[in-house]
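It is worth pausing here to work through a concrete case rather than discussing structure prediction in the abstract. The textbook approach is simple: state the sequence, then state the predicted structure, then interpret. We follow exactly that order.
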Amino acid sequence: MIRRILSLVPPGTLAVGAGLALLGLASYVHLAVAGHSLTKADYSSLSVLWSIVFTLGIGLFMPVEQEVARLVAGRHSQGLPPGPVLARGAALALGLLVAIVALIIAARGPLTDRFFAGDSRMVTVLIGSLAALAVAHTTRGVLSGLQLFPWYGTQLGVDGGLRIALVAVLGLTGVTSPVWFGAVLIVAPLVGVALTAPPVLRAIGGGVPVAWASFLRGLGLLIVSSLLSQVVVNIGVINVKVLDPSDVATAGALLSALVLVRIPLFVFASLQASLLPGLATTAATGDRAGFHSLLRRALGVVTALALAGGVVAVLLGPWLVQTLFDAPAVLGHGDFAWLSVATLAYLWAMVLGQGLLALDRHRAQAAAWAVGVAALVVATLAPVATTLRVELGYAIGSAVVAATMIVLLRARTSGVGSVPSPEVREAVTPGVTGGA
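Step two, the predicted structure:
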């Protein structure tokens, strides 16, 4: 029976899933120890740092990982070396990193005062954390494209395991500075990269350089969609500091709550490994019924996950965030209800987005996320309490994205049967994140 079950999952799912599970656990341990060790003001600063790092880091560098994986996989199937792809990917990641670091340095003063209570060291940690994610995602693209999933899972596992170990040391030694808790986001992923470097180093060099045109095809739209999706899911914590800088309790409490209600997102990351190739296959073969059936089944799975998690969050959420994260008692059952509804809508948007990608509709996916972010902004400006404003922004923004994608998918049912582009047909890895 076990062998039969294992035969049903895509190759590498278990290795990646195990690493992802440890990385997800590390997020909870990291924030739990920090919550019990830091003052409310310092935990608020760490919460904003966390949200910015994973919004920009995943938004910018996950598409690079996916494109590196796509091209490496294509070349590997033809017996060509991956070195030229790694060179282009590293150059692109470096360019994106330099651009975002330049913006951060230019805004260092306002960032320090508004988000980090005057502690400029947190801006330095922010830059270092983004650099670490740039390196990690680029190397993961090579490992994934070569189908070295045990190495890929090991990098995730080392990252997660080291985060747990480092924050445990910080907690046991009585460290009370958010800078050190933030620095874990630099050290852990870089050590994970170093320990899984052998196959990446063997990929360096060899072969004719890859044309930029083939590398950049569709990447701009992927980055737009990736960034906007991270804005929808992470901007609430940042908005608390923007809307009410004197509120040092709500930002930390909100991040702790989001960590709990977004557990289904980690499960979706594993589902995504097989969802996009499956949808792309049915689209390419003209199997319209199969395409819609797979899409409905995926929506059913994430709905069940979100409802199960939502019930627990609504009933026990206020007690759990206070017990696990030592969060201030500023969120009630109603707040967790809004966050759970928002997470359900966000999961729908993620699944429907895979449907659009399977039809090679990158532009439509990006447009849907743009409409959702606009709705989020409008909702956040509502004349209600700060906490409710950010909750409404997350919920309404996610719901608008999902609704827009449904309309776009229905408007192009005739698109099923078209041949997906190489970006879709050669997609080999899910979006894996170390964020909450």
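Step three, interpretation. The chain has two domains: 10-217, 235-420. The longest helix spans residues 40-77.
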